[in-house]
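Re: arginine structure - here you go.
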Amino acid sequence: MKKFLELISDEMKKGFAQAGYEEELGRVTVSNRPDLCEYQCNGAMAGAKKYHKAPIMIANDVAACLADSEVFAEVNAVAPGFLNLKLKNSFVKAYVAKMSQSDKFGLEAPEKVKNIVIDYGGPNVAKPLHVGHLRSAVIGESIKRICRYNGHNVIGDVHLGDWGLQMGLIITELKLRKPELPYFDEAFDGEYPTEAPFTVSELEEIYPTASGKSKEDPAYKEAALEATLKLQSGNRGYRALWKHIINVSVADLKKNYANLNVEFDLWKGESDADPIIPGMVEDLKASGLAHESEGALVVDVKEETDTKEIPPCIILKSDGAALYATTDLATIKDRMENLNADSLIYLTDKRQEMHFLQVFRVARKAGLVKPETEMKHIGFGTMNGKDGKPFKTREGGVMRLEYLIRDINDEMYRKIVESRQDMPEEEARETAKVIGLSAIKYGDLSNQASKDYIFDIDRFTSFEGDTGPYILYTIVRIKSILNRYQELGGNLDALSFMDPANASEKDLLLQLAGFNAMMENACAEAAPHKVCAYIYDLANAFNKFYHETKIISEENKEQQAGWIAVLLLTKNVLEACIDVLGFEAPERM
Ligand code: ARG
């Protein structure tokens, strides 16, 4: 469906053309004086110079031509030359009615369907997820869903950190603890056990222990580096052990991400890039792009227009080891060759901005991507505690994601039990989880990603204000009215829209009508916060209408059915929106 604002602009353009002025002047925007009008057009002001006329004269001419418009109920030319607009109720109703019958509420398929790869999550194997991983998962999942909803082919890749020193550290510690394992016996040439020689909790203890030791003891660190090298150069026992570490860890990660309603299509990792590196490095050398600098192999990426210093991108260290940038470049090559990507999107902390700037420039210079391939790094800000400092546990440590989710769910449970004593324990627990997730996700997504935000459990779990629970509360409220309507004999399949009966209903319809434009824009800008802002306004418009309108006791059945149609559409739109944000609504709360 054509966007609502475009239709309105089209009508205004007709008015300008009919009055003898250039069509393009008829661009309409949402009013910035909602007390005076719904929409406005400032084209007469812009046309004054061109036509050597007072803007108010142009505005008057246009207004006269639009006197019988099917779109505008009022076109007021006001000094010095603004056009203040109000829409016809019938026009608004017709648009919303059509929207309710259309696939995706009138959101059209994109002109060009893109293959988009989103790299998010980025957890490191053998380390538990902590709050630092929350933003990547939550924002990445939402961008994936928004792009998919818009009709693109989207692949989400978790891109595990599974290849670095942490692997060598774990192997070193295991070797100390269980030297008798066959993985450490160079002479062993049988089948290795299928069962891992550790559990996930052991793994989670082994890694920090090993990491601590390596900081104190240079010999230990040396051993870990050696083990890393041995693993990377293909030692059979180490590879087998490494597979166990990955399997045990990935099973646990999957469980944790599932609790967040986050799902990846690909579970690839840095290690998958490894076999691609040697050939890529050769190509970089052969093309002359990569050169030696202080023993290392680097690619210069600075450009004349840079306003700050952009250091060369290091491809290989002087000892020949590949780095973070090297794996990312090889991964780009892989994603281009195997996924034919048109767009590569990365979500990490914004402190990695320089890394991605360098990687993207090398990828372009080396022709790893097509000239038209987009590469976008979405760097997010820090999640802070109420003290304004990075979020920590009460003891000052890094908070595990599991515990953060548990704390939110407990608080949500407390609130539910307080307001709904009648709800059975088990349902209350389940509901707390569902609402808790909305609190966490909405609390994050409603901020522009690049900004830091304060993780405030009290605020996020509140049923009032700009929060996830408020949105869910609105949906649940609508569900209960729809249920009541059906209990009283109403049929949800036999509804037809009516002209809005009052100002708050019209306002709600105008909000609904903005859906397709909002969703397209949220995709183009990879901006979930736009979806949040939209549903917050929509929920507010709905609640205002609801408080002013007696729906269930309405005696005019046609009018009642018209209102129910509006409610049903509002609910469906809200649900589509929270689905792309990555959470859902309970049946009741
Ligand atoms: N594992 C990395 C980290 O913990 C994040 C990976 C992000 N993705 C990427 N392709 N570099 O910082």
